[in-house]
Amino acid sequence: MTTATKTSAKARNRRMARMSADSGGDNEQTGTKKPAAGIAKAAAKPSETPKKPAKIDLVLSMLCRAEGATLDQMVEATGWLPHTTRAALTGLKKKGHVISSEKMDGVRTYHVAVSSNA
Predict the structure, then answer these.
(1) For 16-74, what is the HEC assignment?
(2) Which residues are CB-neighbours of 117 under 8 A, at least 6 positions away?
(3) Given this model, what pLDDT does residue 116 score?
(4) Which residues are within 8 A (CB) of 99 and not within 5 positions of it... i.e. 6 or more apart?
(5) Which end of the chain is more exposed for a tag (fewer CB within 10 A), N or C?
(6) Chain center to CA of 57
(7) pLDDT, tens digit, for every residue of 55-80?
(8) 100 touches 110 (CB < 8 A)
């Protein structure tokens, strides 16, 4: 065997390895694809616990209370930073909730109108 033949065989082997890696797991003999590892596990395991409510739902329920909620209360309940909590309030406004605030004794309290359109 000559050196040129060896180089060509190496190059061909590298190309073949790349092609099989890029093919996405196709099984060329049967024409079927291998299932993705994460999909098989997710399909086999049914949801054992009910889904937790989203933090934004928690904020909305706090705002619906008669006394409303302060920024500090919402930060403590969600674990968000204050600027993230304010951004969530803006998101609720964009979804159609009517959010009002009032400042009493130096503390701002936020409320949501019960008859909001969301």
Answers:
(1) HHHHHHHCCCEECCCCEECCCHHHHHHHHCCCCCCCCCCHHHHHHHHHHCCCCEEHHHH
(2) 96, 97
(3) 45
(4) 63, 89, 92, 93, 110, 111, 112, 113
(5) N
(6) 15
(7) 999 999 999 999 999 999 999 999 99
(8) yes
Residue 56 identity (one-letter amino acid): I
Which residues partner with 100 through β-bridges? 111
Please compute the mean of the pLDDT values over residues 113-118 and round it to a whole number. 60
Q: How many residues are given for the chain?
A: 118
Q: Given phi > 0 = left and psi -120 to 50 = alpha, else beta, which region is 14?
A: alpha
Mean of pLDDT values over 90-98: 96
By three-state DSSP, how is residue 15 classified?
Answer: helix
Task: Indicate yes or no: pTM above 0.85.
Answer: no
Task: Give the pLDDT of residue 66.
Answer: 94
